[in-house]
């Protein structure tokens, strides 16, 4: 097919698609967690003592007692087989950010020619996927490439139903034979445990006696785009890079705002319904939201869960969104910026810490003790954001998120924390040693007086902040839509643990072995918070994060770092402060941290390399030929017309000819530039990608996008933004 024939064909097929009927909804109680080997199911199928042991393990996050593993494995296998599963898989989360699985059959041939289904405790607890093809950043040489997976008891096993059949999936950690973490789950579990210990220590110092396990929670709002598969299939950029490398913004974009709360096309509705049903079966409490700004963009958000489970569920949500889209003739784009000039996609990671005895520790509460506790924990966050801002920037650094951060629709690449005007005022008063709280005339006494209730006004939300307090949690808004949430959660938990530890150290030094009442503790904590505010208060910012003034003020007056690209951000993983943070808390050893830098840097370089090659390929083999056809047709017409004495305006042809030259030169230059591989360091290579290659790609794109507005539409080979965003 030449010219726009493939486009026309795609549109024809799309408009004639038989919509997949919305199924009769099943009863939620029949659906809910039906594919999860939940605590209830374990209780029903395990001997009492075994169940007790497993439950304890889950609640404390310890290793499963090997003596009960066989019984658990047996019950799990019987349940899985009853659900039609023939296979089981250890599911793990390598540093690529994707989800990996190692499948095995339950079937075990016997010496006598019979087969039995076998699944022992040993197979449940530990697997050995070869896994040598996963990036490990130098931790393993290939001759010792063995990696082990081990069941994470705190995340339940489940059945995954696909067109190929049902599989029992067991969430696991993935570690090297020397015990180093090769995955995203292991450090997350460690960070959950250190923030628990640090929280308990401070709570005890603040006067609490009965303190349950403190866990961190996460609720991640996921944005995504849906476009018809027919369009995606004719665009190599979408297929291979997940975004459009060329494309002129449509005449009608989001400025009309009619997508906002707009009617959802029937096809999309059927898709969403299907996604929700699958997620409910997996026990994932996700619900579609209709509040995104771009045409073709949607959002799904689960109710928050404990960080580890939420993180596994987030991976399952991304997989389900992608797989279900295929069944409905769509492609689901999780890329942060699939369309230039159109709002991008983020993943707001809502995060808090709390337990069953003290409740949500980031909830201000309305008694003096709760206020005291809240201000201490909130102060810890402020200190964390200021000290470890570059880490927060590094954990959201990817080639794709670079397109979003710092643009005027997404949080800036400067890390700051938004508290809301009331809370900011309270912390400023603490800083000045003059805490009044607005309802008090005199000076307020922490631990005795009650803070005025903080209004949770939705209008008070600051959308321009990368990290915002939203009433009882913080919302990390700068996280990319395609990212695993583990990295951000690890950073938040670990920096929190460090800050809580610091506050406890200060408090302990003042208290010694004494136990003090709330009044005295309040007096002691105030100067500690004051100290935090004077050293770290510059990270608190309530104004417009998109503005030019903020960029200047942040950097020049407050000394905050503006870290625009991944190439600038990743090297902070090698910063001594960050190394010490991870080493002192035990969340990542220096080797593990170094390996993460290596892997993420390599991924960044690969990503840009693929895109740059695609730009040259598409420019030379798709766009340039179309432009030449256009020119040759136009030249023919001009010649014919002048032969019969009609004069023609040649300016458009001249413009197109000029752009064609720019396009070809740009593509050739880029083609040569991609070949360069002799760099002194990975850092240099990343900078080369971020500056030289990216700007060359942008120049080619500029020529192509201008040409799209000049070349005859029936010759243009790529589906346009209008078509992809509006035809469903
Ligand atoms: P928004 O206005 O940002 O859409 P929502 O109240 O709908 O806010 O919540 C967004 C997400 O935050 C949901 O996933 C929700 O479950 C989660 N969330 C709510 N409270 C907490 C909390 N204490 N800790 C973590 N996540 C939370
Ligand atoms: Mg939100």
What would you note in describing this structure?
The strands form 3 sheets. Strands 9, 10, 11, 12, 13, 14, 15, 16 and 17 form a 9-stranded antiparallel β-sheet that branches. Strands 1, 2, 5, 6, 7 and 8 form a 6-stranded mixed β-sheet that branches. Strand 7 (158-162) and strand 8 (165-176) form a beta hairpin. 47% of the residues lie in helices and 12% in strands. The longest helix is centred in the last third of the chain and has 54 residues, at 590-643. The chain has helices at residues 5-15, 28-31, 39-45, 48-60, 66-82, 121-125, 185-205, 229-233, 236-241, 266-281, 307-327, 368-394, 421-431, 486-511, 518-536, 548-557, 566-569, 576-585, 590-643, 651-674, 682-708, 721-726, and strands at residues 85-92, 100-105, 107-109, 115-117, 126-127, 147-151, 158-162, 165-176, 215-228, 286-289, 297-302, 305-306, 330-333, 347-355, 359-360, 467-469, 474-476. The chain is built from 22 helices and 17 strands. It binds adenosine-5'-diphosphate (ADP) and magnesium ion.
Q: Let me know the number of strands.
A: 17
Distinct ligands, ions and cofactors found in the model: adenosine-5'-diphosphate, magnesium ion
Rounded to an integer in angstroms, the radius of gyration calculated over CA atoms is 28 Å
Largest sheet: 9 strands, antiparallel
Q: What value does the average pLDDT take?
A: 90
> Under CATH, the topology of the largest domain is which?
Creatine Kinase, Chain A, domain 2
CATH domain class name of the largest domain:
Alpha Beta
